[in-house]
Amino acid sequence: MSDLVGEATREDSAGRGRYFIRLARQAEAELTYRWSGERTMIINHTYVPRAFEGRGIAAKLVNSVIADARSEGFKITPLCSYVSALFSRHPEWSDLLA
Fold first, then answer.
1. How far apart are CA 98 and CA 3, in angstroms?
2. From edge to edge, which strands make up the β-sheet containing 40-47?
3. What is the pLDDT of residue 4?
4. Secondary structure of the chain in the HEC alphabet?
5. In degrees rounded to 5, what are phi and psi of residue 39?
6. Mean per-residue pLDDT of the chain
7. Residues 30, 48: Cα–Cα separation, whole Å
8. What residue ranges define each of the domains in the chain, with the CATH number in brackets?
9. What is the pTM of this model?
10. Are residues 27 and 51 in contact, defined by beta-carbon separation less than 8 angstroms?
11. pLDDT in tens, 17-62
12. Among 10, 13, 29, 68, which is least packed by CB within 10 angstroms?
């Protein structure tokens, strides 16, 4: 991961939201989600601009979600193929699956 990449920020609004990292003046990486009930986050998309791919930015977004799920006690349904693949590689996250 690049040390030059900032921290992920979470924005919630009316049953949905996103985590994002500002990468440049006009560029952001993001992970979008919606809520199913009060305790299940459904992750439906991750995006990193092509110029910033391969730097671990998407993983940083997912790690922010994992940290929040642990501290806030919610479960995750990974509809996004990238997030689903990360869950397969991290069996220690299996307790967070909805």
1. 32
2. 9-13, 16-24, 27-36, 40-47, 75-78
3. 59
4. CCCCCCCCEEEEECCEEEEEEEEECCEEEEEEEEEECCCEEEEEEEECCHHHCCCCHHHHHHHHHHHHHHHHCCEEEECCHHHHHHHHHCHHHHHHEC
5. -120, 10
6. 93
7. 7
8. 9-96 (3.40.630.30)
9. 0.91
10. yes
11. 999 999 987 899 999 999 998 899 999 999 999 999 999 999 999 9
12. 13
- For residues 21 and 7, give the distance between their C-alpha atoms in angstroms, rounded to a whole number: 6
Residue 33's identity, in one-letter code, is Y
Hey, what are 65's tokens? 């979600």
Q: Residue 19 corresponds to which tokens in the numbers above?
A: 């985590």
Please tell me the distance from the alpha carbon of residue 23 to that of residue 73, in angstroms, as a whole number: 29
- Looking up tokens 């509809």 gives 79
Task: Give the CA distances from residue 51 to residues 23, 27, 58, 85, in Å, rounded to whole numbers and listed in that order.
Answer: 10, 10, 13, 22
Token duo for residue 74 = 């919610």
